[in-house]
């Protein structure tokens, strides 16, 4: 519930107070976490039917989330999102699992007063050896509501290793939950990485915005004859090399470039380098409404550069994680750029969210990816 939607309030509250919402006839509508520091004034926990918000309530929510992810147990996967915020009925909070380590990230101080009860429920439903607390940037600045909690602290008794190894579809990857992006790995692309593996046999593969080489490792296991990983972050590229090593994949087929992606693509175009499979998975380009047009322009530029490096009949894989850019606009921007480049795109499939990143409301859908031949 946004602050502007509240017509009347009985009294001022503190972050984490339980706010009960009534309609104009004083009928119960919902209960949620109150946050006077945010335009999202109340984050709804329970609607329609009243409930007591306590350890048991948290335990039931966490159990539902765990059941939804149960099929991953059959895929030799120990790295996945355990709680996907609002979409799992726990707004302002996510939990990612990396083997026996859980990373709990908060986006509002409203969760702080409930953390003890919540962590007790979590230990019952999804036991872990280590529990790391992460705080988003704005929350880190709200020390008066944190009561000594800090970003990156370990809530459980034992300190976890700085690099955590976990499995994804039988492959081993590392995560740095303190210093890495997100909680250390981009878990949401797991299904798309698996699709890339099936397309990679005997192919030359270019992975742009590779981060720690997730797509590259899958391509190598899929039998690619050459894989090139490009990312501006040298530490991320070093992690990509290590991830290849954990899986005993040949380093001889893996070329790494730690430079700006746009500059590398332009240079490769001038060198007339060609690949059978080009993967473009950039970071979020649009964090607000006013950045949408610039984001679409960047996607079109990346499509043009990617296609200039794609061998005729090759496969383009292009993704967006910007929730502000809707799927139709994103896919149309790719097709527009392809038309301008004189390349005919034949779609293989459009993909969205994996089961551990469920979508329960339209605005929650952020990930979209196109697989197409050109």
Structure characteristics:
alpha/beta; 9 helices; 374 residues; four-stranded mixed β-sheet; globular; 27% helix; seven-stranded mixed β-sheet
Walk me through what this model shows:
With 374 residues, this protein is α/β, with parallel strands linked by helices. Helix content is 27%, strand content 25%. It has nine helices and 16 strands. The strands form four sheets. It has a seven-stranded mixed beta sheet with strand order 12-11-10-13-14-16-15, with helices on both faces. α4 runs parallel beside α5 and α7 runs parallel beside α8. The protein is globular and about 65 Å long. The protein starts with 17 loop residues before the first strand and ends with a strand.
Give a quick rundown of the structure.
With 374 residues, the protein is of the alpha/beta class. It has nine helices and 16 strands. The strands form four sheets. Strands 12-11-10-13-14-16-15 form a seven-stranded mixed β-sheet, sandwiched between helices. It has a four-stranded mixed β-sheet with strand order 4-5-6-7. A three-stranded antiparallel β-sheet has the order 1-2-3, with no helix packed on it.
């Amino acid at each position: 519930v946004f602050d502007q939607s509240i017509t009347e309030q009985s009294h001022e509250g503190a972050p984490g107070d339980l706010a009960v919402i009534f309609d104009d006839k004083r009928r119960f509508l919902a209960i949620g976490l109150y946050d006077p520091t945010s335009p999202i004034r109340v984050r709804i926990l329970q609607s329609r039917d009243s409930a007591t918000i306590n350890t048991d309530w948290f335990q039931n929510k966490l159990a539902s989330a765990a059941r939804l992810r149960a099929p991953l147990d059959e895929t030799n996967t120990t790295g996945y999102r355990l709680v996907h915020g609002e979409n799992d009925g726990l707004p302002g909070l996510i939990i990612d699992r990396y083997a026996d380590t859980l990373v709990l990230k908060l986006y509002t101080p409203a969760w702080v007063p409930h953390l003890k009860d919540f962590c007790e429920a979590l230990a019952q439903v999804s036991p872990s050896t280590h529990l790391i607390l992460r705080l988003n940037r704005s929350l880190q600045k709200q020390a008066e509501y944190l009561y000594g909690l800090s970003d990156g602290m370990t809530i459980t008794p034992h300190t976890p290793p700085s690099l955590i190894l976990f499995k994804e579809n039988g492959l081993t990857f590392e995560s740095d939950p303190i210093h890495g992006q997100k909680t250390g790995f981009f878990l949401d692309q797991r299904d798309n990485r698996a699709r890339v593996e099936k397309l990679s046999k005997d192919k030359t593969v270019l992975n742009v915005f590779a981060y720690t080489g997730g797509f590259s490792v899958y391509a190598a296991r899929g039998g690619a004859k050459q894989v090139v990983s490009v990312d501006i972050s040298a530490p991320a590229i070093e992690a990509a090399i290590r991830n290849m090593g954990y899986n005993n994949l040949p380093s001889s087929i893996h070329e790494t470039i730690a430079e700006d992606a746009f500059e590398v693509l332009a240079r490769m175009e001038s060198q007339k380098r060609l690949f059978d499979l080009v993967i473009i998975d950039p970071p979020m380009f649009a964090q607000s409404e006013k950045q949408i047009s610039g984001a679409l322009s960047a996607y079109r530029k990346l499509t043009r550069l990617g296609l200039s490096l794609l061998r005729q009949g090759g496969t383009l894989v292009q993704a967006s994680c910007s929730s502000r850019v809707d799927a139709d606009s994103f896919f149309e921007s790719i097709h527009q750029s392809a038309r301008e480049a004189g390349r005919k795109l034949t779609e293989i499939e459009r993909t969205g969210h994996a089961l551990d990143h469920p979508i329960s409301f339209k605005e929650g859908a952020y990930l979209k990816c196109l697989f197409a031949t050109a």
